[in-house]
Amino acid sequence: MKPVCYFLIFTTLVVSTARAQDQEFLEQPILNDPIFKEPKNPWTGSFAAGLNGKTGNSVNTDINITLKLDRENDFGKLALLASYFYSSNDVVTTTDRFFGQARHEMNLPWPKLSWFNQLQIETDRFKDFDYRLALHTGLGYEIYKTDSGFLKLRFGAGASREFGGVNTNWNPELQFGADWEHKLMETLKLFAIADYYPNIEDFADYRLVTNTGLEFVLDAERNINFRMFALNRYDSTPNPGDDKNDTDYGVSVVFGF
């Protein structure tokens, strides 16, 4: 199955989940009391798309699409993410990659602590496997959160497996991660996300995923931003013929909702 198919299936599941939750939200009884205020919709999200092209002596096309949905309440947070990257020239396709993630964080009785469960699926037409599935669970800790930004750490454990490749075993892994965001001004912010997955049985065998960039406001009233990013995936022990590093970088227009 091509990565674009995974993107369409995953985004359909994401949107279906959001619509089901919204239906539950809309079916809540609304009192006729003028003091009553309609509850705030807990869903927020964004759709980002970028397209680069070239014509003339050669034809190049680069596409990146990202859908993000977040649902937060007093009990925790659900974050859904789907990204698709495609590149081609006038001869061959050079990139065809999908990444999907669902992370559910549950607040704990202790301040700043949370428990998370995470699922990831990744597919790449040019990798020596059909897709990689990873499941992790663990603790999150919020170092700080202010009007200008936040820093959150996580530590957990789980396993990953590559289907349709050379190594089809489940690999037990630890997870060390961090999310960071900082506003330089009201219209400009920096962000960085990093997750390190060492094999429990051999720390020399690990994966490292980082996503860094900046985002600035194009139209505050319509919630439209411009994003520059670099997404890197490093595998210390790739399958034969695969590179250790995979990097996607580019720009996109972000529509918030």
Write up what this structure looks like.
This protein is mainly β. It has one domain: monomeric porin ompg (Porin), CATH 2.40.160. 9% of the residues lie in helices and 65% in strands. The protein has one helix spanning 3-26; strands at residues 43-54, 60-73, 76-88, 93-107, 113-124, 131-146, 149-163, 171-185, 188-199, 202-219, 224-235, 245-256. A hairpin with a 7-residue loop joins strand 7 and strand 8 (171-185). The protein is globular and about 50 Å long. The two termini are 31 Å apart. The mean pLDDT is 86.
Largest sheet: 12 strands, antiparallel, barrel
Strand arrangement, major sheet: 1-2-3-4-5-6-7-8-9-10-11-12
Fourth-tier CATH superfamily name: monomeric porin ompg
Helix count?
Answer: 1
Order of helices and strands: HEEEEEEEEEEEE
What structural category characterises the helix and strand content?
mainly beta
Radius of gyration: 20 Å
- Uncertain runs are none
**Approximately what portion of the residues adopt beta-strand conformation?**
over 45%
- Under CATH, the topology can be stated as Porin
Mean pLDDT: 86
Domains, number: 1
